[in-house]
Design a protein that fits this description.
Strand order of the largest sheet: 3-4-2-1-11-10
Radius of gyration: 17 Å
Oligomer: single chain
């Protein structure tokens, strides 16, 4: 269950909008050119003070949203000074609910994780291990409300290999088809027009509102590999990539209108 504060109010019936953000934060590392993958590689294994200056700036952006899906966080290892990055962002941005899913543990050195930050109280969170030859990829299913009218937000970070992504999106398609109201967000490592995305769209009723929203690399975006997709019951009012280059990815923002049957509790 999510970490929470005490409150039991329903969102008013007239207010059904939800502001969404998906961001691969690269554990708080700001990258400005390809060469820094080599020269700044030590930041992936060692702690450094500038990481938290950058995370504070990321948290300032997140304050404007109702629900944030985070990829490439750390659950509290040596490289983050044993600070849980999702928890740190939630506290800095003023989110009352947060949770994370650690998918790959490398001793004390790294705890690769996904995270969710929410202004509304989830009714349940389920962790899924995604298939693949190399373990360490997962999906978080964050549910709001109860029964068939619940909203499910899936947060993912998919494999680098096309074969792995095909297997993982086939698995995710089965998860999506278990629910009526679904949002899928994350770093999918594939473009809108790819074979992998076609597999997902053909298997489910999901759509991607806009194609070609390039997010990678953040300093000169040429590839749209970060996505937010929705089922037909979730109405999209706005979708955009934000020019907020505090990682090697740019964040994706979306505002949606939910069905009146979905209950959001604070």
């Amino acid at each position: 269950m999510p970490k929470t504060a005490n409150a039991k109010q329903l969102q008013p019936a007239h207010k059904r909008t939800l502001r969404l953000l998906s961001y691969n934060i690269q554990i708080g590392i700001k990258t400005r050119r390809y060469g820094q993958y080599l020269t700044h590689s030590w930041k992936h294994v060692l702690n450094h003070p500038q990481r938290f200056d950058n995370l504070d700036r990321i948290a300032c952006l997140m304050k404007e949203y109702d629900l944030v899906g985070v990829q490439e966080a750390d659950a509290g290892s040596a490289r983050s000074g044993f600070v849980n990055i999702t928890q740190y962002l939630a506290a800095s941005a003023g989110f009352p609910y947060w949770d994370d899913q650690t998918n790959r543990r490398i001793g004390r050195f790294a705890q690769h994780s996904l995270g969710v930050l929410s202004r509304y109280k989830p009714s349940g969170i389920t962790e899924h291990k995604l298939p693949g030859r190399i373990p360490g990829r997962g999906a978080m299913a964050v549910r709001f409300g109860d029964g068939s009218e619940s909203l499910v937000v899936l947060i993912v970070h998919l494999a680098l290999s096309r074969r792995g992504r095909l297997s993982q999106l086939d698995f995710i398609g089965d998860l999506v088809n278990d629910y009526r109201h679904v949002v899928l967000m994350g770093d999918m490592n594939c473009c809108s027009r790819s074979e992998e995305m076609e597999l997902l769209l053909n298997k489910t009723l999901m759509t991607e509102p806009l194609h070609g929203l390039n997010t990678f690399p953040s300093w000169r975006p040429k590839r749209n590999i970060d996505h937010i997709l929705v089922t037909p019951t979730v109405e999209v009012e706005r979708a955009e990539v934000l020019d907020y280059p505090l990682s090697d990815h740019l964040p994706v923002s979306m505002e949606v209108v939910l069905p009146a049957s979905v209950e959001l509790r604070t």
